[in-house]
């Protein structure tokens, strides 16, 4: 009896203890959630971990919250560890969590695992997230790796330093380094100091010591990226929504980012900043950039009407008023964040995004605002890495970029970007005499499609990034057309300028034909189109040497038709060769052809087959536009199945060998 009573007493105490433990766990989770929702991630993590320790066994919710906290604090390695624990316990179930995990994996260099995760999400949701294409062709982002040289700057601290902008023969940038300012407080989000604006003057090729900007601009709250106009007399910058001593917050209690404007007074000092008209307590606006015209403002915002998260907007200054913001559209903006815009002197917009195909994290992209059909281009490695890269600016051959890449002094560092270019000149010369030839030259940069032309036999002033290739097509009266590919990687690194000589072979004035006459008579050579009277049978013979019928099954490889990597566009040099085929088919109306398109081995088989199909279709469309009936043109596409070099999957090859595989072949079928 006593044993039974003791058993029930112990069981009762265990139940009380269990209930108390469960109550403590729930209180820890509630408190942790409060800190999480207020962006106080370090404290939230601490409480979630205590809740897990209290439980003893694995619990998905706090583990996932820890993973999300580290992700939002931009600590991908720690975040990956916790996401992996959730996945190992079969608790990574929501689409959003899987996408977030894939972004973390890209930042830590786990491309294959990220690809598999995204593929699973797309299959389950029957949606295209737009990420697999970039992961299948990740090497395209490394093609310009020889074109830039990056240096870590001496102005960097062990904290966050980012988003530089040119100002007063120096740089203004954002930092949360410790200063001597009294009462410098820390930010609850990650318990680091608040962000301020700093200035560092240029000293030769380097920068001098950084110092805080005016206290009229810097406050006890966050100050962020800035833009200067009117020769540095006017600044627009980012700040927490704080005006007239009051913090503006949304209905959810979140302090939004806003933009403020200040001008220098007659004493050269900054006046008190005033809020920009776009500010709101319901959404954020920030990261200003001013175009070369001095009156067009670009900025990032998550206001209503975005394509997803934060988009790039623009506003113009007219009659003393900033116009209503205009969304830059879906060419630039995606369902993810577009941030940190900057407009160069040649009106090229640079910005950071997580929504366009990239290497991982935030990548830097550019788009030429002068183009009627603008295209967003990833700046590639080494400007972009698997970590966050953003805040890119450029002046001539010198630029700066902010990056969280490995090897920095702090979480985010500023790097000087040296653009490695060379000056090229293309000249036409006679292949036999070496003398200059007057004729037409068409040149195209294989990487970005930039085109240059000349009708004088010489083309000067081509600026080419080191490591890139040029497609060159040339034609001159009395000479055979020529085309070639110039690879700048073959030149020594010290070469800053180079002359490319394209040797043209003279056309043959006549084709010699050897006629063998009756035995005992002398042989005689006659030219094409000449007449010869054969006296033995009094026959007058005219030598018509033109080939009237093309041989069925004969294969013509258009060696000079080149394709840019990952593109199907018909370039000018390729168009010239296709024009020759048009002339041939018009000369022989009964002639039918088959176009066979091929790719190199980079990318998946499925993707390469689709790319080859697009290339064949583009060539077919070109011939049809030139007047050739569609019924006379068949197309086939082989992807990477018929390589002409040994550059298969996993075989290291230079770009020249890959180029040989990117070809179109033409076969006469009738």
Automatic annotation (TrEMBL):
GO terms for cellular component: cell outer membrane. It comes from the Bacteria. Gene3D superfamilies: OmpA-like domain, Tetratricopeptide repeat domain. Residues 550-670 form the OmpA-like domain. The lineage of its organism: Bacteria, Pseudomonadati, Bacteroidota, Cytophagia, Cytophagales. InterPro entries: Bact_OuterMem_StrucFunc, OMP_bac, OmpA-like, OmpA-like_sf, TPR-like_helical_dom_sf, WD40. This is Outer membrane protein OmpA-like peptidoglycan-associated protein. PROSITE patterns: OMPA_2. Residues 1-20 form the signal peptide. It is found in: Cell outer membrane. Its main location: membrane. It comes from Marinoscillum furvescens DSM 4134. Keywords: Cell outer membrane, Membrane, Signal. Pfam families: OmpA, PD40.
């Amino acid at each position: 009896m006593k044993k039974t009573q003791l058993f029930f007493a112990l069981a009762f105490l265990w139940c009380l203890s269990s209930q108390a433990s469960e109550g403590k766990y729930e209180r820890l989770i509630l408190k942790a959630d409060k800190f999480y929702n207020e962006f106080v991630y370090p404290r939230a993590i601490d409480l979630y971990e205590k809740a897990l320790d209290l439980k003893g066994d694995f619990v998905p919710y706090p583990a996932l919250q820890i993973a999300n906290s580290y992700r939002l604090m931009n600590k991908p390695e720690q975040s990956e560890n916790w996401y992996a624990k959730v996945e190992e316990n079969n608790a990574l179930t929501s689409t959003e969590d899987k996408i977030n995990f894939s972004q973390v994996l890209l930042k830590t260099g786990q491309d294959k695992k990220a690809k598999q995760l995204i593929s699973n999400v797309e299959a389950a949701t029957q949606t295209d997230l737009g990420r697999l294409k970039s992961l299948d062709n990740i090497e395209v982002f490394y093609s310009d790796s020889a074109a830039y040289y990056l240096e870590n700057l001496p102005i960097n601290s062990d904290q966050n330093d980012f988003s530089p902008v040119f100002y007063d023969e120096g740089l203004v940038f954002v930092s949360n380094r410790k200063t001597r300012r009294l009462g410098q407080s820390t930010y609850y989000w990650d318990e680091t100091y608040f962000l301020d604006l700093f200035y560092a003057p240029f000293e030769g090729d380097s920068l001098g010591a950084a110092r805080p900007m005016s206290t009229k601009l810097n406050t006890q709250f966050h100050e962020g990226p800035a833009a200067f106009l009117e020769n540095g007399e006017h600044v627009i910058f980012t700040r927490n929504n704080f005006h007239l001593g009051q913090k503006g917050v949304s209905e959810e209690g979140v302090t939004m980012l806003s933009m403020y404007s200040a001008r220098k007074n007659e004493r050269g000092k900054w006046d008190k900043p005033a809020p920009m008209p776009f500010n709101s307590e319901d959404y954020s606006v920030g990261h200003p950039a001013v175009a070369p015209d001095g009156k067009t403002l670009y900025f990032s915002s998550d206001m209503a009407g975005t394509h997803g998260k934060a988009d790039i907007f623009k506003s113009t200054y007219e009659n003393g008023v900033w116009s209503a913001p205009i969304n830059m559209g879906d060419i630039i903006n995606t369902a993810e964040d577009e941030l940190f815009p900057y407009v160069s002197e040649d009106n090229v917009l640079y910005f950071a995004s997580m929504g366009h195909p990239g290497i991982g994290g935030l990548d830097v992209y550019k788009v030429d605002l002068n183009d009627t059909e603008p295209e967003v281009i990833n700046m590639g490695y080494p400007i972009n890495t698997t970590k966050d890269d953003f805040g890119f600016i450029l002046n001539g051959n010198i630029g700066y970029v902010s990056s969280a890449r490995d090897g920095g002094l702090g979480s985010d560092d500023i790097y000087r970007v040296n653009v490695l270019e060379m000056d090229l000149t293309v000249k036409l010369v006679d292949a036999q005499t070496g003398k200059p030839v007057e004729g037409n030259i068409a040149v195209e940069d294989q990487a970005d499609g930039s085109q240059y032309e000349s009708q004088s036999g010489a083309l000067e002033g081509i600026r080419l990034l080191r490591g890139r290739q040029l497609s060159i097509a040339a034609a001159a009266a009395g000479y055979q057309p020529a085309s070639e590919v110039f690879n700048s990687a073959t030149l020594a690194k010290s070469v800053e300028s180079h002359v490319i000589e394209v040797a043209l072979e003279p056309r043959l004035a006549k084709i010699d034909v050897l006629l063998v006459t009756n035995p005992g008579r002398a042989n005689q050579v006659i030219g094409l189109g000449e007449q010869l009277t054969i006296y033995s049978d009094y026959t007058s013979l005219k030598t018509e040497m033109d080939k009237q019928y093309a041989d069925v099954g004969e294969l013509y490889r258009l060696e000079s038709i080149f394709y840019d990597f990952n593109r199907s566009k018909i370039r000018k040099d390729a168009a010239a060769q296709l024009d020759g085929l048009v002339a041939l088919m018009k000369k022989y109306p009964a002639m039918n052809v088959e176009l066979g398109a091929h790719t190199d081995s980079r990318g998946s088989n499925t993707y390469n087959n689709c790319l080859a199909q697009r290339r064949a279709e583009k060539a077919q469309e070109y011939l049809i536009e030139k007047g050739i009936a569609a019924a006379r043109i068949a197309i086939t596409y082989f992807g990477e199945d018929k390589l002409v070099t040994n550059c298969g999957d996993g075989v290291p090859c230079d770009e020249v060998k890959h180029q040989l595989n990117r070809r179109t072949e033409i076969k006469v079928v009738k």
